[in-house]
Predict the 3D structure of the following.
Amino acid sequence: MVCLCHGISERKVRRAIDAGAMSLAEVGDRCGAGTICHGCHPTIEELLDVAVSVRPRTAFA
Ligand code: FES
């Protein structure tokens, strides 16, 4: 579980990132994670860092 406030699993956060979320706000918009106490932000940021570092450059265009 990544976000205890919303009961959001790592899998759901990864799905939001795979669908194009590139920031904490975008992850929150897509699945709700990180929008209440913000305690899960460090974990979401780690998942974003890993995903963004392996994304093809064209994904940023
Ligand atoms: S644990 Fe994610 S917003 Fe509180």
Q: What stands out?
A: The chain has one domain: 10-60. The pocket of FE2/S2 (inorganic) cluster is lined by residues 3-5, 33-40 (CB under 6 Å). DSSP finds three helices and no strands in the chain.
